[in-house]
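We emphasize that the prediction below concerns an isolated chain of 583 residues; any contacts that depend on oligomerization or on bound cofactors are therefore not represented. The input was used exactly as deposited, without trimming of termini.
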Amino acid sequence: MKIRFIGPLGKVTGSCTWMHDEANDWNFLVDCGMQQGERTAAEWNACDWPFDPAEIKFVILTHAHIDHSGLLPMLYRKGFRGLVYCSRETAEIAKILLRDAAELSDIGFTAKDVNAIRWHEPRRSPFFGQFHSVDRNLFVRFFRSGHVIGALSVAVHWGAPGPGQRSIAFSGDLGPNVEDEESLPFLRHRMYAGSNDFAVIESTYGEMVRTAEQNDPAHRRAQLRSLLDRTISRAGSLIIPAFALGRVQDVLFDLHWIVAENPERYEGVGFHIDAPSARKMNAAVLEALRRTENNGKNGKVRPLWLGKQMFRWFGLDDKDPTHVRTVLDICHMTLGAEAGDDVQLPACGNAVARAWRPLFRAMTNRRQHVPEEDSRASVYVVSSGTCDGGPAAWWLPKLIPSTSNTVALAGFCSAGTVGGQLLSLAKAGLEERRRLTGSLDWPGGMTMPLAEIGADVVALTGYSAHADQTGLLDWILNHHKDELRLVGKAVFIQHGGDMQREALAEAMKARAEMEGTLVQAMMPADPDLWFDLDKDASEISDEACLREMEDEIARLSREIARRRGIPGGKGSSMPGRGQQRGR
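Result of the prediction step, given as a token string:
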């Protein structure tokens, strides 16, 4: 079995890994995502792949985010006819995201292409940890990654069952929730993906170590409570642009919690949600949270996705069916019901649980709502986390001129987005802002001079759905009942900037030494390079190092030739990148 890391190498988006075994006619992908916000996005998203889509047998999809799933419709358009293996929750959420994306004029695919996708969740039970056969002597195992609803880590096993079978685990995107120390609501903790010969890990936050405060849900809610109190004191508006999957749901939960802690204080606040995509997501999330599974080994019935923290936080017992229904009712009031709906109110649990009520009203016609005429404090949760489009692009021009209002951004926004430009103003006072030239510009022609922005701008922290460096290391070097377990003897680091990858590699080496073991860290840099997974990890590592040295020698030879003025800069016959033997 060979593996080729097509993307992303030194980047964060555009996940796509190609696996191939010519002798067994195995030819498949792990993820097939778009690049978003990358310098090379246009080139990548043109789908000039190094493989023939018609020859790909199947795709394993770790989760629904567009940077992992976004080119699936194009794969089918160009000849792929196989199955996409994933959780059924990922399939439902990906359909929503891809159909929304298909409405964009420059996306390259249509709703018809999305409808052509053949989603498939293997039916053997239990779902997690089970060996699901995808071909003769080829199996996949799924594990919850804790990133978003439906998200998986995946282990691929090849060869006849027994001592000679080999395997590689893919982390997918890993979430921050650790068992019994969960920080985000709804989702259960990430799972260990078994012991394998190799592993592939993302490194989005490979150089970041969060503080205990940053992982504390009470601290996260405290900053949001402070903004809500400030909004009340000014009789202003608080607008929270957030991503439709994961971020909107977490923000809604925290706002409900804050109000349930002190219902009288927030009784007069108007809560509005204008996030059509997120409301579709909410229905899929609620369905997922209700899903249970019977573990055949011990007969226990457990939720697949609903986290135990929801029971701890509300003073409830996850083994009591009545309490389970209460938590699901709370989830429904948060994500599925509207203010004033006739709902089943909690009759058990702590004071926060018993005070929980639906808060938000969905805006079906935003043009009928005039914020300037609303004299009470108001909260608007709107979709489009980067603020470049969607409801956020409609609301922001109306709300940000007023000094009574606050914009709270709940996710990362790159510098070139409207959200990123707003964040650059966060520390600038009004007098300083009035000296600014330039403007915020939205697609469609809406524009606003930076000097006219009066609203406070705040970055909310604690909502990241990604594990930090500590979480990534814990997935690789996992402790269970005082026993150290390695997810892979050698680990390929991808899906992150080179600084993040290098920081994770150094931290991995240090942690392994501290644990008295060895883990080989490899950072593939060449998307043309195949790695032979039927070799030992040390052989692969040595071969990769030799090829990197050959590439560096070739680069230096060309530079020497250029400086000596040799025509064409050809100073060495040493093979350069893309020319190594065995390609």
